[in-house]
Amino acid sequence: MDLTKEYPRSPREQLDGMMILPRAIDKARAQLEGKLGQYVYFGCHVNRVLFSTLGVTEEEFLQTVRSSPDDEGVLEWIREFVRPEPGKIEAMNRRLLNDGPQKPEEQKHFKDELDRIDPGNDSIKTWPDLIDLEEGRLPKESATAT
User: Fold this and answer.
1) Do residues 62 and 38 touch, judged by C-beta distance below 8 A?
2) What is the mean pLDDT of residues 112-135?
3) Rounded to whole angstroms, how far apart are CA atoms 24 and 8?
4) Is the pTM of this model over 0.85?
C-alpha cells in the first residue's frame, strides 16, 4: 500500500467487528513497503488502542501483516492465536468512536489541525472525525458555507 498516493481506510471501517483494524493493516503494509508518507505506524495513538485491546505488540502485528497475503490472513491469526474477548472489542469500538482530545496540549493540537483542514469548523469533536475530514470522507463546512 502506498500512503503517499492514497489514504488508508477510515478508522471507523471494521473487519470482524473491529474498528481501526483495516486502517492498521493498511498502515502496516505501507510501513513494510517504506511508503507511509505522512502517516505514523509505530506509536500511532489509535493503533496503540487496537494493539492493547488485542494484547499484542506493534511488532507482532507487523510481522503478522508481513506474513499474511490479505486481510483474511490477519483475521485468521487474530481468531486462532489472539482470541480477543467480544466485550473488549465492543469497549474499544465505543472508545474509538468517542475518542477526542483530553489533555490541554492534545486539545490545542486538535484545534490547530482542525483549523488547518477546515477553518471555522466547530462540529468535529473526535479523532476519527478529524481523520475522516482530513481524508475527504466528511464534507468540509467551509465548502458548504454560503
Assistant:
1) no
2) 95
3) 8
4) yes
pLDDT for the residue numbered 54:
95
- Both 134 and 108 in one domain: the answer is yes
Instruction: Evaluate whether residue 8 is within a structural domain.
Output: no
Domain that holds residue 126: 104-141
pLDDT at 36 over 80: yes
Query: Number of structural domains, the chain?
Result: 2
Instruction: Say which residues have a Cβ less than 8 Å from residue 7's Cβ, sequence separation at least 6.
Output: 135, 136
In a domain, 9, yes or no: no
pLDDT confidence tier of residue 143, bands split at 50, 70 and 90? low
Same domain, 30 and 64: yes
CA–CA separation, 118 vs 56, rounded Å?
A: 36
